[in-house]
Amino acid sequence: MTLITGSTSRNADTEAPLIAALVERWSPRAYDPDAVVEPETIRTILEAARWAPSANNVQPWRFIVARRGSEAFTTVHDALLGFNQTWADSAAVLVVNIAETVDESGGARPWARYDLGQAVAHLTVQAQHEGLHTHQMGGFDAAGLHAAFALDPSLEVVSITAVGVLGDVDALPDPLRQREVAPRRRKPLDELVLAG
Predict the structure, then answer these.
(1) 39-50 vs 112-129: helix axis angle to the nearest 10?
(2) Digits of tens for pLDDT over the chain (196 positions)?
(3) Residue 180: C-alpha distances to residues 6, 22, 66, 79, 91 (Å)
(4) Domain segments of the chain: what residues?
(5) What is the CATH number of domain 35-165?
(6) Phi, psi of 175 (to 5 degrees)
(7) Burial of 189 (0-12, 13-18, 19+ CB in 10 A)
(8) b/e for 59-98, b at 16 or more Cβ within 10 A?
(9) Distance CA 83, CA 106 (A)
(10) Contact present, 41 and 132 (Cβ < 8 Å)
(11) What is residue 184's DSSP assignment?
(12) Spatial distance between the Cα atoms of 95 and 133, rounded to a whole number of angstroms
């Protein structure tokens, strides 16, 4: 059994000093299928999301929190596409990230997806601080989730976040196992900064 733990560092090789939660954050697919994330911890990571910045402070984010073993978890898991279904069932929680893209008067909220991204980033960093790991997913049936949870037309399902405790990398199918232990890479900062 191979656990990805502190002894097998997945820490980022940063070009500048960062806080520990950012250095240690990565997106595993191997989660402990028996680990439980306590309701208080879920509330804490959602509180971090709640305090993210947003355009005009409209806070256009909404979440569906589905704990493993619940009907909601099954609904979310069944909406996952491709290889996401092969590993996400072992996460303790699946969080559906939703943007309110239309305001009360029918006007567009052009920054809603960006603001939701900020909220999910806050959730992710707080989860890391709490000793958890997260993995963002874009492969899912958004229309199916929208219908299954009877969401208002002003709401758009944007992404899903798996949350849990690291598990056995050997439990993953081979292609995913190889990705789990592959070296982490990022473009150099000089390539990302276009001016200044």
Answers:
(1) 140
(2) 445 443 457 899 898 999 999 999 999 999 999 999 999 999 999 999 999 999 999 999 999 999 999 999 999 999 999 999 999 999 999 999 999 999 999 999 999 999 999 999 999 999 999 999 999 999 999 999 999 999 999 999 999 999 999 999 998 988 888 888 888 888 999 999 999 8
(3) 14, 18, 24, 23, 15
(4) 35-165
(5) 3.40.109.10
(6) -60, -35
(7) exposed
(8) bbbbbbbbbbeeebbebbbebbeeebeebbbbbbbbbbbb
(9) 37
(10) yes
(11) P
(12) 13
For residue 86, give the amino acid letter. Answer: T
- What's the one-letter identity of residue 100? E
62 and 165 in contact (C-beta within 8 Å)?
A: no
Q: Residue 99: how many CA atoms within 13 Å on its side-chain side? A: 21
CA dihedral 139→168→21→24, nearest 10 degrees, is -100
What would the two tokens of residue 137 be?
């997913």
Cβ atoms of residues 167 and 30 within 8 Å: yes
Amino acid residing at 127:
A
Q: How far apart are alpha carbons 192 and 187 in whole angstroms? A: 7
CB atoms within 10 A of CB 127: 27
What is the pTM (predicted TM-score) of this model? Answer: 0.93
Q: Which residues, at least 6 apart from 22, have a Cβ–Cβ distance to it below 8 Å?
A: 12, 125, 128
